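User: quick one
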Amino acid sequence: MHASLLQELFSFLLAIFVGWSLITKIPPVLHTPLMSATNAIHGVLVVGALIVVVAALGTSQLIVAGLALFLATLNVVGGFVVTDRMLEMFRKTPNEKGQAAK
Amino acid sequence: MTNLREAAYMIAAILFIVGVMRLRNPATARSGNLTAAVGMVIAVAFTLIGAPITNVILLLATAIVGAVIGAYSARSVRMTAMPQMVAVFNGMGGGAAALIALAEALHALAHASYPGLSEAVPGLFDMLVGSVSFTGSVIAFLKLQEWITGRPKSFRGQNIVNAILLVLLVLVGVAVLIVPTPSTKLLLDWILIVGSMVLGVSIVMPVGGADMPVIIALLNAFTGIAAAAAGFVLQNDVLIVAGALVGSSGTILTLIMSRAMNRSIFNVLFSAFGATVTATGSSERGEIHPTNAEEVSMLCAYAQRVVIVPGYGLAVARAQQECKDLMDALVARGVDVRFAIHPVAGRMPGHMNVLLAEANVPYDRLYDMEDINPEFERTDVVLVIGANDVVNPDARENPGSPIYGMPILNVDRAKTVIVNKRSMASGFAGIDNPLFFLPNTMMYFGDAKGALQQLLLALKEAA
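Assistant: Done. Structure below.
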């Protein structure tokens, strides 16, 4: 048990409470985009993947870390783009931007 | 430098939270997603600035390939395939989390510097949860894509086998902490990862296709928690905060979704829902009343209020545009047209809203279940297009039905119900639907797209 672990636990628990209280009354129309957006946010794993790639020494570490970076990039980029595409369609009036972009 | 990075991480974490806050309202949702993305760019940029980048080429090449594939597939995927796309991206995140922990373990073993319990335990947890999320999401993808059957696949005692497997995996984790030799530790790490991957498959296989959204939401929360665990391993605050945020909001979202289906999360996970369709009580089938485009067009054109109930069948046939055209044609005749959206219409909550928004249906015409249900008694014609289980009166009336208790759209209370289906085959959950045999129900057979086109033609001729 070191001091920074306590600090980390502190951030962790606060974030748990924030996440818990943010999602209470969400209209069903936003369930899918919200799931998709939080899916993109855990793409923050890309930060972790970068750290292990930078630290990697030797072939096996490089392969494992590189694969982690690849998967995390897919998660983060794909996640945000797909969410944006869903939300792009939420317009009040159909003619605001003409026909939906294909 | 470290302080600057910590400050950047703090800003990124705040942007994630603000992003989720803005996602709670349709008007600000898109900017919310963008806000979170900006936070992500900041976090990534400040991770790289000042870091001793020895593996630049590998790093750049990998990141670019990943980004291009991710962006391309997200751009090109059809809106109907959105749920499985989210599942795939989630699985990739889970895999990344497990691999980060493995890379860190390899690094530590190579330096013969064993991490303390406060890093080793989250690392093992990461391997377990990340791997479960990885293979679980892949199975969810395969089921939704219908590359494997959406029907639940289970064997007797599967839950017990899963529980035993989980206990064994935890024991493997404990063994990693205890054994002294690096090579044995590594071998056990691999056993833990492979075993967890098997567990992921085994957990998701028994879940029916109709429950897949709940599973994806749950696995999304899993990956969030795995990201937080990776944060403990690397002592990185932004991973901890963002991961915990997704873990808890994802859990709540999972509960909201399963509540919308009136199922507990345990029920979704452990009951192999729909695997056994037992006596449903509606064996006295009665007669069906087939109809045609002309008759339907007459009924709709002279109705005061028409409620359209779109289901996944509509999306599969890609008939959203025809649906919108039908709305326009009827509105032009002064008919009050509404869309009734069941919380789980489509394959994810909110999926149908997205699909209709794509076809430019204004969202003030979309009504949630609670708002539209009292209106059916004052509705002349209900047009059910490609929906089945969400309008099954057995859910309300027949305690023997597997979906008994699930909230449904009470379309059977309208004067006339027109059901468009390709055939009399049962729905996604494989359950009989007595709605089709009611005296006020007419069956309009045909593929949704073709059927709506014919209906539009018939409406034009009648004009």
